[in-house]
Amino acid sequence: xxxxxxxxxxxxxxxxxxxxxxxxxxxxxxxxxxxxxxxxxxxxxxxxxxxxxxxxxxxxxxxxxxxxxxxxxxxxxxxxxxxxxxxxxxxxxxxxxxxxxxxxxxxxxxxxxxxxxxxxxxxxxxxxxxxxxxxxxxxxxxxxxxxxxxxxxxxxxxxxxxxxxxxxxxxxxxxxxxxxxxxxxxxxxxxxxxxxxxxxxxxxxxxxxxxxxxxxxxxxxxxxxxxxxxxxxxxxxxxxxxxxxxxxxxxxxxxxxxxxxxxxxxxxxxxxxxxxxxxxxxxxxxxxxxxxxxxxxxxxxxxxxxxxxxxxxxxxxxxxxxxxxxxxxxxxxxxxxxxxxxxxxxxxxxxxxxxxxxxxxxxxxxx
Length: 367
Fold this sequence. Notes:
Radius of gyration: 25 Å
Helix content: under 10%
């Protein structure tokens, strides 16, 4: 299964940041169709459907994200098959039998800095053996582009198969037959196989590749999160770490650093070093900042963290992968700048520290 999961950038320390790595052949996992207009609200009825869904066919009534996109169809009474467009990425097609005939469903994307598409006038189909080439004649109108990016027009295409097709090219671009992937519906995500059966039910708020903040190899792992908790799955979507953590960092196949809530008072939260069996090997007070925060603001291999029990305000510090303190978690802010830590205290004074936590300059106010 080719997957193109979108990475969610979580930069606040209280967000659900997490870390992982990916090999080159895993870098382009499944990127689903545009989800920007779909409501993230899930009604009670929707939630019941999602929780009990065994296949995509069980939730077709909820897959209505793309009904406003341009539609070209060679199929009469095609409403019942529109839902397929919600699971197709931009370079995929799926073969569908409907009312005794076979069709290819796929997206045609048009990009222009001065135009937008308004309708599909016609298409040209050319068969060469088992290959089908489709050229789209799109009706357009002038439309100025906003910013640096071209205008994007997405067209749903339902094309009748006049003969067997194993290879599809649209406007010269090769498409691939759908083989399963992520499904986004009602603000939730799941994973379906090529037959549209759910490998993971569509109950998660996010499914992402597990990142690591170091350039080391790790196996393909996924982070899933739901109701404020994170877990980890392997490449076959089997559980590795339970849905018990506020945040997770990958160290190696048998070591993770996690944030664990201890009741409603964040002052009781802990950061723990755990193994794959979720045994706590070491722990300390505090919680982890998002991986993007540590990546950007910390020396390689070091982690920015917070201690909410510090006096009058939050205190931020830096630790290593064994949870040893590099910089005490008592400061207002910490930035990695030009090979040194720029640290600000709660009196708006700044000083420089090196990667070993040694203070280089005195705390002074900037003019």
